[in-house]
Structures are given as C-alpha cells and as structure tokens.
Request: fold
Amino acid sequence: MLVGITGNIGSGKSTLSQILKLKGFKVLNADEIGKEVLQKEAFEEVVKAFGKGVLKGKNIDIKKLAKIVFEDKKKLDMLTSITHPLIKERIKREKERSLGALTFIEAAVLIEYGWQELFDRIVLVFAYKGQRLLRASRRFGLKEAIRRDSLQLPYSKKLCYSDFLICNTSTLLKLKEQAEWLLKELKVESGSNR
Reply:
C-alpha cells in the first residue's frame, strides 16, 4: 500500500516521516526524488531551459535553481513541466515495488499537482499557520516561508483529498501517538503486518 504524506510548509511532514522510518517503514521524500531526477533524467532538458548558469561543476546547483524558479512562477511552471512527469513515473514504479507492504512518500505538493491518484491513501499533516511559519522560518527565513506558504493550497481544499488527518499542534509525544494510531488503521486496511 502506497501512502502519501502531505501538508503545508512547516506542518511536520518530515517529523512524521522520521517517526515512521524509526518504526522500520520505508519512507521516501518526493523532494529527494526530484533532486535525483534533476541530476539524471531531467539534467539535459533543465540545463537547456535554464542555461549553464545553474551548474556547479558537472551537477545542477539546486540552490541556484531554486532561487531562480521560486522568484518567477513561469520558471517554476517550466521546471515542474520537466521534472514532475519523471517524478510521477518514479512514484508509480515505487508503488509497483511495494507489493502490499506499507510504503510512505512525503510530498508537500501532492495535491497541488494532482498526484493523489498515485496513492492508495493520503495523510494530511495539519498545524496552525503561526506554528508552521515559525518552524519554516528557522529553515528559510520568515519572508521566504510566507512566500512558499502562499504557493500551497489551503487546508480546506486539501482535506477533500485526504483519508487521514494528523494534527501536529501539540507535543512530539502526541504526534508519536497519532503515528501509532495511523499505522494501526493502515495495517487493518491493507491486511499487512508491515
């Protein structure tokens, strides 16, 4: 069973993913898949589209490319038109490989880009906007966290596509308890022990 983990910036998707990994489950990250795709299948097309200025040595400089695309929606759309079909293909292959075992993929833009049909179940991680922006600002700075948050769908829309809601507004212990509950529910649905 392939389960998508999504939520807006700073919601705690990665923390939930870490908890699941520590419990022995396979958890992949769509951003990491995207970085691999950039350096392999999409490399030539991305360099052709954005120029050799995005290179650092023989690889695409992810930070340079991110700066370019996150400042211009048209360029972001261009990049996603190149990379997202390839990422979707990798997710499909992962689903085929999972053979009934619970496998998770963390993907912030799962719903924004219409990937929900790739997953058997979708888990939405929720946190209040102030909490999310505070968490995300530690990594990106407040201005960038607000800008990235503005590119994501509101929770009211994401809930329509979600099978499970994890509320990450309290302590890490509460999040771990919800992860335990989620695993029990998914194991019952899938008939799997893993």
